[in-house]
């Protein structure tokens, strides 16, 4: 398992990628504002696609938006962290440590994670931030459908096909000019009891103590 973050936390991550559903989660304003994070880089959209190493099929889609703040839209997903507030599948406080945790949560012996980054204008980034926050909770098996519906509303992303199959938008996204793609493989077992996550501070900014929290079946 990759260990590139800084402080220590433990999160249970049990099961496969198929069990996901809509949750009516709504973190309070003070928690969301406490972790607000803006990356130093240019405005960027990042498409994450989880791919089965066995069949080559797409298993999950997520969309990270970096503008006036950086958030992660993980529709119908089970990834979570108690120090990263969530509102209807949108997770806030997405530092580099949180991104690494997200990738490591999904990558395992049976799945790899494709990350595709593209620099966009500030206007497109802010539009994407608004759309993901207005989308609402996503129903089971609708992750790719919701991500593609949002992307298709953005200027320059009209070529992304509306699809329930994660690999279709991944391939179309990869054909956009300027996309940078990385693939992460991991040798963690498929039923991994715990994932090591470091560098995600408590909401009060204090270094996280070692903790253990249950995660829903992924």
Task: Give a quick rundown of the structure.
The protein has 218 residues and is α+β, with helices and mostly antiparallel strands.
Write the SSE topology:
Layout: E1 9-12, H1 29-34, E2 44-52, E3 58-66, E4 70-73, E5 86-87, E6 90-91, H2 96-106, E7 111-119, H3 122-134, H4 143-151, H5 167-174, E8 180-184, E9 194-197, E10 212-213
Parallel strand pairs: 1-10
Antiparallel strand pairs: 1-9, 2-3, 2-7, 3-4, 4-6, 5-6, 7-8
Question: Mind explaining what this structure looks like?
Answer:
- The chain is of the alpha+beta class and 218 residues long.
- It is 22% helix and 23% strand.
- The chain contains five helices and ten strands; from the N terminus they run E-H-E-E-E-E-E-H-E-H-H-H-E-E-E.
- The strands form two sheets. The chain has a seven-stranded antiparallel beta sheet, with helices on both faces. It has a three-stranded mixed beta sheet with strand order 9-1-10, covered by helices on one side.
- Strand 3 and strand 4 (70-73) form a beta hairpin.
- The model is unreliable at 1-16 and 207-218 (pLDDT under 50).
């Amino acid at each position: 398992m990759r260990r590139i973050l800084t402080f220590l936390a433990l999160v249970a991550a049990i099961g496969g990628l198929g069990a996901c559903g809509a949750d009516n989660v709504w973190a309070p304003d003070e928690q969301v504002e406490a972790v607000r994070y803006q990356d130093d880089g240019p405005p960027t959209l990042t498409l994450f696609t989880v791919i089965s190493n066995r069949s080559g099929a797409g298993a999950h889609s997520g969309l990270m938006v970096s503008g006036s703040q950086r958030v992660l839209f993980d529709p119908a997903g089970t990834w979570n962290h108690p120090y990263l507030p969530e509102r209807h599948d949108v997770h806030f406080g997405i530092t580099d440590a949180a991104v690494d945790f997200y990738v490591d949560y999904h990558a395992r012996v049976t799945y790899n994670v494709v990350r595709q980054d593209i620099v966009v204008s500030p206007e497109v980034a802010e539009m994407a931030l608004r759309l993901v926050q207005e989308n609402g909770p996503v129903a089971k098996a609708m992750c790719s459908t919701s991500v593609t519906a949002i992307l298709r509303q953005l200027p320059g992303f009209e070529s992304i096909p509306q699809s329930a199959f994660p690999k279709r938008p991944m391939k179309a996204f990869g054909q956009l000019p300027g996309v940078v793609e990385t693939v992460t493989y991991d040798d963690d077992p498929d039923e991994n009891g715990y994932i090591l996550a470091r560098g995600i501070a408590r909401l009060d900014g204090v270094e996280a103590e070692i903790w253990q929290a249950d995660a829903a079946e992924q």
